[in-house]
Write a structure and sequence with these properties.
mainly alpha; 279 residues; 0% strand
Length: 279
């Protein structure tokens, strides 16, 4: 007698239909655009692609985009964790307002954010005038690009870590304190290992968004070649010149570098999950 396997009821349709719909949407939204980019790259040829990318201006733009994006994401990793912890663990006046303000970069058009930051930190802006006597220039510098990327990347870390902190069992912290561990030891050995997978996910999301950010950066960057010109702006310039092959070459270079960075982050995330026993 054959005994059927009991399966838990699911609100979604069968696996075949659900998988088919998922792969269709994924292909249209993600795989086909990437495939088209790589396909055009194959038509151009590796040698010509390298010749188009191998210039001082493009390497300077790529270095600036990834360097500042990494610095902004690392800052968001630390400050986003602190902000999420405060919002979850403490009750104070204005907490709901701050919690809602975290989502503002999601709702605000990036061009508006760039114009607002430029108006504030330009040499004749409210904050720019105050910083000028100190020799600090924010607008039209790498610092301004960094500030714009911090603004658009912070919500990714906060909203990724916040639910995990809410589910964090406080009894683990109390047990650690009972065993004589100091606060720093509890943070390092109990809390951070549990939060590491979520932190890495938020970091990866913020980094991916920052690398390709365009609207909020071009206004405050100044777009000076070899100084404050970002790679996405170079792609737009090449497209406006109808030089689609050069735009493809820069896009593929960004894709390869981004894939390598995300692969490393995912490898660290898998290792951290195995270390705390989640995999």
């Amino acid at each position: 007698m054959r005994v059927g396997i009991l399966r838990a009821p699911s609100p979604l349709p069968g696996f075949g239909l659900s998988f088919g719909i998922t792969m269709t949407v994924l292909s249209i939204v993600v795989l086909l655009p990437i495939g088209a980019l790589l396909g055009r790259g194959l038509m151009i040829g590796p040698g010509e692609l390298w010749d188009m990318v191998n210039s001082r201006r493009i390497w300077a733009a790529l270095s600036l985009s990834f360097r500042v994006a990494l610095a902004a994401s690392l800052f968001n990793l630390v400050f986003g964790l602190a902000l999420a912890w405060v919002l979850v663990r403490y009750r104070f006046w204005g907490r709901r307002f701050i919690d809602a303000a975290v989502d503002l970069p999601f709702a605000l058009p990036t061009a508006v954010a760039g114009i607002s930051l430029t108006a504030l930190y330009a040499p004749n802006g409210a904050f720019g005038q105050a910083l000028a006597p100190l020799g600090i220039q924010v607008a039209y510098s790498e610092l301004g690009i960094w500030m714009a990327l911090v603004f658009i990347g912070l919500p990714f870390v906060v909203r990724t870590v916040q639910p995990v902190i809410e589910e964090l069992d406080r009894e683990l912290e109390e047990a650690s304190a009972t065993l004589g561990a100091q606060r720093l030891a509890t943070l390092r050995r109990v809390i951070l290992p549990t939060l590491t997978p979520a932190l890495l996910t938020g970091f990866a999301l913020a980094l991916a968004r920052s690398v390709g950010e365009y609207g909020s950066v071009i206004f405050i960057a100044g777009n000076l070649p070899f100084k404050t010109e970002i790679a996405p702006l170079l792609i737009v310039i090449r497209l406006e010149e109808y030089n689609y092959d050069a735009a493809t070459a820069i896009g593929i270079a960004m894709l390869v570098i981004s894939f390598a960075m995300l692969f490393a982050i995912n490898a660290i995330q898998i290792w951290s999950r195995r270390r705390i026993g989640l995999v």
